[in-house]
């Protein structure tokens, strides 16, 4: 049984176990709650996610260094960065525009009863200026803090310098190429435990969430879900077909294990190693593009989060009986699009971004407390959408600059060893 099938089967088993614990009310039993749900399930899931996050910094740094050395001309690097950023911002703006349009059409939140005990403590995010200045942070400190933008910039500069340093640079490049192979092997060793970890994560989520929270916020929950599916299954495939001529069917068939993994972990950063291997080995993107586009996308591409923001803004406005003007709606689109860069590296980025949007248009941030109950489950889905966007843009950009192997893309057996 390959990895994709294992992950899907274990996801279903985990969901069934979690629902059973919730429906039978076993989650309220002290032993079950302390030692199974918040003990075994939590520890297994977190250890796996932490092991992947452990790999993110060395993987991104080394692979991006190697990729940069393969781009000998500065003009090629500038073209790659500019196109990648433009595509990510475009898909984010499209995502939130669709979200606002459907949320307003459905009248999501109208007639909702606001709980009187809603509490939400606003988290403090970094300003756009602070994020821009942080891209030239101390590289050692950036690696310790997981500051992806700073790591990306340092890897690019070091790789470019190594390519210009003659024999000394070639020795460094040779070392990092070997190091990159070792890291890829370690990633595959860790991935062998993915099915069990996904089972544990989903069992915990469904045991704690159940269906009560979903039913109470049905309009909001299903509106976000619909927009996420529209963006993933209509917008991305259309862009892929129109801009690159590639088959969306082949794309999604090869992305199944990555999307299942993203859903289970609900972390774009933790999914970077898997996304990277998929786009290079299964989809035919050259390392020089994937090593930049994938971690860059995981850092700034927040289409799924933007969709949540759009629907949540309309939901909270309607729930409080407040009307949004055309100017406010335009502000929401601009805020969410630019904030996709400005919130890089901030924990709970979606909620930090949302509170900034609400404050900008004059809505109470306490409204965020209403939607927290179902945010965990929606977070898993929007992470899968974000990862889909990362891979789609990576393929489009690679094809546009001639760094793409279409034979690998069309070969159903390409990269199958990573699924074993």
Describe this structure in words.
By secondary structure, the chain is mainly α. It is built from 18 helices and no strands. The protein has helices at residues 3-23, 30-70, 74-106, 128-133, 139-145, 148-163, 166-191, 194-209, 212-216, 218-244, 248-265, 268-282, 287-300, 303-319, 326-342, 349-360, 368-400, 406-410. Helix 10 runs parallel beside helix 17 and helix 13 (287-300) runs antiparallel to helix 17. The longest helix has 41 residues, at 30-70. The chain is globular.
Concise synopsis of the structure shown:
The chain is an all-alpha fold and 420 residues long. The chain has 18 helices and no strands.
Throw out a few tags for this protein.
mainly alpha, 0% strand, 420 residues, single chain
Set out the fold topology.
Blueprint: H1 3-23, H2 30-70, H3 74-106, H4 128-133, H5 139-145, H6 148-163, H7 166-191, H8 194-209, H9 212-216, H10 218-244, H11 248-265, H12 268-282, H13 287-300, H14 303-319, H15 326-342, H16 349-360, H17 368-400, H18 406-410
Helix pairs in contact: 1-8, 1-11, 2-6, 2-7, 2-8, 2-12, 2-13, 3-10, 3-13, 3-14, 3-15, 3-17, 6-7, 10-14, 10-17, 11-12, 11-17, 12-13, 12-17, 13-17, 14-15, 14-16, 14-17, 15-16
